[in-house]
Structure formats: C-alpha cells, structure tokens
From TrEMBL:
Protein name: DOMON domain-containing protein
Pfam families: DOMON (PF03351)
InterPro entries listed in its UniProt record: DBH-like, DOH_DOMON, DOMON_domain
Biological process annotations from GO: dopamine catabolic process; norepinephrine biosynthetic process; octopamine biosynthetic process
Length: 139
C-alpha cells in the first residue's frame, strides 16, 4: 500500500533514465527494479505518475484499500516495438488476472519509452473518479 501523504522526495532513485518532467515526489518501490514519481494538481483534482520498471515489457501500478490485489484499481501499460504507448484501466476483484474496467476508462497514458533495459510510462488519473471499479486516491 502506497501512502502518498507519507513519502517525500527520494534521492536514491535507481532508474538509469530521467523522468519526462520534474515531479514533487518520488520513491524507490524496489531498489534497482521500480521507481515512482508523482505530482498532484489540486485545481484539476488529478495526479500525474511516472513509473519506471527495469523490464522491457508491461508495467503496472495498483491502488487498493489494503495494499493487496483484492479491490485494486490498476493501470497497466507497455510500449510497443514502434514506440507507441498503450495503457489500460483494470480492476482486480481477487488475487487473479485483473479485468479491464468495464465502467469507465480513468487511467490515461501521456507518454512512454523503453531505454537501457527500463520501461518508463507517464500517466494520470483523477484523484476520485466516482467509478465503482476505482479506488479514490487520498492525498
């Protein structure tokens, strides 16, 4: 479970590629494997994330009430061989493959790239989408 209130700027980022923009917050999710940046836009009531994962494939970020998969609101993305970014809004009702959110699409890719063995995707979502398959982000 990621509490966005308790994390501050982190200097130990392990990704070998720079984020697309400057963010207010960052954290190492797993040393030399996954890093996360984010900024909240209070006026728009949305949050912009950038996730870097040491893989050449799909990556995901989940937000859930108890920190596990059950009830998780998940954004899943990848960069194809032509450099196009794909992103899906998914939901996990249990510890199983998350289904595509069939209510509304609330996770939006902004841009992404694969470089030096890392996949980096910038995406955004409203803090509270009022969607039953989404979990509100409290900041």
């Amino acid at each position: 479970f990621l509490s966005l209130l308790t994390l501050d700027k982190c200097d130990g980022i392990s990704s070998s590629i720079s984020p697309f923009i400057n963010y207010k917050y960052s954290t190492v999710l797993q040393d030399n494997v996954a890093d996360l940046w984010w900024t909240v836009d209070d006026a728009e009531r949305e949050i912009t994330f950038e996730l870097h994962v040491k893989t050449m494939g799909w990556i995901s970020l989940g937000i859930s009430p108890a920190g596990g998969m059950k009830g998780a609101d998940i954004g899943v993305g990848w960069v194809d061989s032509n450099g196009n970014v794909h992103f899906q809004d998914r939901y996990a009702s249990d510890f199983a493959k998350p289904v595509i959110d069939n209510t509304t699409t609330d996770w939006y890719a902004i841009r992404g790239r694969e470089q030096n063995g890392w996949t980096a995707i910038q995406f955004k979502r409203l803090l509270d989408t009022c969607d039953s398959m989404d979990y509100p982000i409290k900041v």
